[in-house]
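Hey, quick one: can you model this chain's 3D structure?
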Amino acid sequence: MAATGIDIAWDRPTIAQIRATGATWVARYFSEDPTKNLTASEVTDYHAAGLGIVTVWESTATRALEGHDAGVNDAHTAWAQRAGVGLPDTTVVHFAVDTDTDWASVAPYFQGVQSVLGSARTGVYGGLRVIQGAHAAGLRYLWQTVAWSGGTWASFATIRQPGGTTLSGGADYDTAEAADFGQYPRPVPPPRPVPAPSYLEEEVLAYLPPLAPNADADIPVEPAGTLAAPQGGSRNGPLWLCLAAQGADGTVAVSMRTTAGWSAPVEHPVTVAGGKLVLTLPEDGSVDVVRVNPTVPLIGYVTGRQVA
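Sure thing. Here's the predicted structure for all 308 residues.
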């Protein structure tokens, strides 16, 4: 959903008046006219009220037609004014082309601006042809006005100025068309997803000594979920305890020790014909020792997977 904003030149509405327009952000000016310019107190007040801030440089409507050096000079002046009101050096400044022209006529000006600010901090305000040319030139922050656009909106414009005023004509309506439209505070990118661990081939970590019937046998498992293996290496992935009956069918009681103590023994059947019993150990490292007590002789081993 597009976020409503307003751009204000000389008027100074209160926060309550701004909110009453439905705006969630305000565009304000840098220029050669101090009575028009954004102030440090406004930055503080808007930010405290949760209003975003968009900045735009405009001295005269046709300034961008004056070439490369004009762009360099305006960029330096705008950047100094940005610092003076306390905005960070990640701030995007839009530069206005407030006249009916094409990109070719203003490209040298914006090349001058970019030589100072770089493309990541350079925005463009203008009609359709200017916005199309700026987009083709690789600029991202594009504020399109309904004027000089012939009723056509560029799909890549990050802000639209559709016409219409508010606050008794003292402010123009705008809509933000992207999550990042060059506003302050700068949007925080979403955290990168944590990739799921990839497991390598299952490996035997340790062969257990023969397990005698009717006797406890403690198998150490490290807190990190890795086996303290007397005959093999350790792994930091899932672990399985594999047990097989020898000569006769029976049962095996299994309990696991955590910081809370020993779990109650759980009986598992083991049969000669049924193959091995596989017990999955918790991956969270909560178990440090597994105790088994079989009713028949067992052989066993621990398998695990290395997290790549």
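One thing worth noting: The radius of gyration is 35 Å.
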